[in-house]
Design brief:
The protein has seven helices and six strands. The strands form two sheets. The chain has a four-stranded antiparallel β-sheet with strand order 1-2-3-4, with helices on one face. Strands 5-6 form a two-stranded antiparallel ribbon. The longest helix has 13 residues. Helices cover 42% and strands 15% of the residues. The protein is α+β, with helices and mostly antiparallel strands.
Length: 149
């Protein structure tokens, strides 16, 4: 059985055959380079030492993103809506009018309570996790349009 290195420097100092053996021990897919990717290997060793792992579902997503990061970066929603102080945002939800006022310090006033984000207001209204921009209709995911607030 291989002894785990105690530091990244110790890992780098190991012969390539031992580095490759450690890689093969902790990763299911082979690494075809002569050298294993040392930072990735060191991360996995730290996980083993601390008994903490990334769940398989997260690991699967990370692997998917690593294969085509440019594609996933383009696909990510990249918008920020800047609200002007005093703007009122309205939403009819379950037959009730909900009016949110934008404060000057980029916070939101709803039902005499102050919220840091528009999403926090949306969660308070509907009782479940939701994007505030989508809930209030400020961003159309299909067309990519952002409402000018």
């Amino acid at each position: 059985m291989l002894d785990l290195p105690i530091s990244f420097t110790h890992l780098k100092a190991l012969p390539q055959t031992e580095q490759q053996a450690l890689w093969n021990k902790y990763f299911f897919q082979p690494h075809y380079s002569k050298k294993p990717i040392l930072k990735t290997l060191w991360y996995r060793i730290q996980c083993v030492q601390n008994n903490s792992y990334i769940e398989n579902r997260h690991q699967t997503k990370l692997n998917k993103y690593s294969k085509s990061p440019e594609y996933h970066i383009k696909k990510a929603i990249k918008y920020k809506i800047n609200f002007k102080a005093g703007t009122q945002i309205t939403k009819i939800y379950k037959g009730k009018d909900h009016i949110v006022t934008v404060n000057g310090d980029s916070s939101f006033l709803y039902d005499d309570k102050e919220y840091k984000t528009i999403s926090a207001v949306a969660i308070a209204i509907c009782g479940s996790k939701v994007s505030g921009n989508h809930f209030f209709g400020l961003y159309n995911k299909k067309t990519g349009e952002v409402v000018d607030a």
